Amino acid sequence: MPLTAYSHRFAAELDLPQWLSRMTGVPLDHLRLEGFEDNWRHAAAQDLECPSCGARGAVLVASGVDRKTRRKVRQATFRFRDPDGGDAHAPLCDFAAHDDPASVEGLVNFQSPKDWLTRQVRVLVCGGIQAGVFTQADMRAMRLWFFQQRQSYRVEITLDPRIPELVRSIWYSKMPSIPFSPSHGDIRDFDWRGVARRMAYPEADGLLALLAERRLWPRDDMVASATRLATRLHGQTVFDVSVFSEKLVLANSLVDFIVDSYGAFRANRTVRLAKNRVDRQPALLALASLLLFKSDWHLSSAAERFARLAAISAPPDVLGNLIGLNPFTDYWSVGLIRLLQDSPTQIDPTLDFEQAVSDCERNLRRAHQAWIDAGRPNHTPLHSSNS
Ligand SMILES: [Zn+2]
Predict the structure, then answer these.
(1) Exposure of 352 by Cβ count < 10 A (0-12 exposed, 13-18 middle, 19+ buried)?
(2) Neighbouring C-alpha atoms within 13 Å toward the C-beta of 276
(3) What Cα–Cα distance (Å) separates residue 176 from each residue in 192, 194, 205, 365?
(4) Rounded distance from Cα 348 to ligand 1 centre (Å)
(5) What ranges do the domains of the chain cover?
(6) How far is the CA of 91 from the centre of ligand 1 (A)?
(7) How close is the Cα of 186 to the center of ligand 1, in Å?
(8) What is the spatial distance between Cα 17 and Cα 44, in angstroms, rounded to a whole number?
(9) Cα within 13 Å of Cα(192), Cβ side
(10) pTM score, whole prediction
(11) Cα within 13 Å of Cα(216), Cβ side
(12) What one-character DSSP code corresponds to residue 203?
């Protein structure tokens, strides 16, 4: 159940009280939300659509009030029903299962920004609407376009959820170094464990080379997210967001331009933006993507559009709701999953890597001892310079 819906009549994203207030002319604080006249119910079914999949058939749901305490227990909202009374959402629509736009894949709610950056981006979005750079109808068109992309490009998750964490452990053990020789064991406080970690599972070498080639470093957050996806959605399909790889390059370029050129961001880039890398900021990516979407993904046109909206000094607050979209959610984790499950080199998911390291360390120590017992063959003592 989405809390807002797109109104064709008002070309705006509205929650139920906002929509009813505009329809009836009754101010927001005088609205009754516990029962609706039939003509408003009929109008809602005609006018409103789901903000994600575009389903019609909105049904007004009254706010719920506890009879004893008179406390509000449910916010007035919409449901989308087909003529038979069933759920009208498209099967892949997140609103079929969730209420809150914040929990839906990619949607960025500018209405109630929780952080500094999203508040700044909201002001810019209001400026964009004020300057006529884009409209709420464009934001809706972009959401529907994204929904179509999500339906068209799907990839099945077959990866064992234990694999991403194993790959991370092996990856961080592989520091490039000179190949081990038993003579290295003579080094005082030799790092047996470190060398064993590097050598314990050579079967993964092909896979690690592939990761390096694609520049997909298994970072902690990416691995955690890939593990969650592989656990929750094993055997199901997800949006193959890798189809957006060229668009992500463009969006990141535009985000860089915005951060470098817009005063509030430039001044705060080390303090406020450094914590999270800019390319992982959903609000900024949502704004950049909207500008690019409106510009047919031409970077220079999108930068010109940004200049127009950023010229507005104090845009009026836009009444209604602003729901943007970051189309690149899960880009890295889905990319990691695809690479790991498609790679010709596969890791045994039952591998106990720490045990493999211990076994390898024992073997290295034995090889060193055997080399000593054999009288340190090929051991060439260093000659001093004057001998
Ligand atoms: Zn929907």
Answers:
(1) exposed
(2) 12
(3) 15, 11, 12, 20
(4) 40
(5) 1-100, 159-234+347-373
(6) 8
(7) 67
(8) 12
(9) 18
(10) 0.78
(11) 24
(12) G
pLDDT in tens, the chain (387 residues): 567 889 999 988 888 888 988 898 888 778 777 778 888 889 999 999 998 888 998 988 887 777 777 776 677 788 888 888 888 888 888 777 655 545 566 777 666 666 778 888 888 888 888 889 999 889 889 989 999 999 999 999 999 999 999 999 999 887 767 889 999 999 999 999 999 999 999 999 889 989 988 888 898 989 999 999 999 999 999 999 989 999 999 998 999 899 889 988 888 776 555 544 544 578 888 999 999 999 999 999 999 999 999 998 777 776 556 777 888 888 889 999 999 999 998 999 999 999 999 999 999 999 999 999 999 987 655 554 443
Residues contacting residue 9 through CB under 8 Å, at least 6 positions apart? 47
Q: Which residues, in sequence order, are CB contacts of 43 under 8 Å at separation 6+? A: 23
Measured in Å, residue 4 CA sits from the centre of ligand 1 at: 11
Q: Which residue has the tokens 């064992």?
A: 160
Q: How far is the CA of 135 from the centre of ligand 1 (A)?
A: 21
User: Could you give the count of Cα atoms lying within 13 Å of 166 in the half-sphere of its Cβ?
Assistant: 23
| CA–CA distances in Å: residue 193 to residues 43, 177, 348 | 71, 14, 22
Report the separation in Å between the CA atom of 58 and the middle of ligand 1, taken as the mean of its atom positions.
Answer: 10
d(C-alpha 245, C-alpha 255), whole Å: 15
Q: Give the distance (Å) from ligand 1 centre to CA of residue 211.
A: 36
Determine the distance separating the centroid of ligand 1 and the alpha carbon of 80, expressed in angstroms.
Answer: 8
* CA gap 159, 237 in Å, rounded: 12
> Ligand 1 mean position to 90 CA, how many Å?
6
Residue type, 176: P
Q: Which of 378, 348, 17, 346 is nearest to 186 (CA)?
A: 378
Residue reference for tokens 């999949």: 53
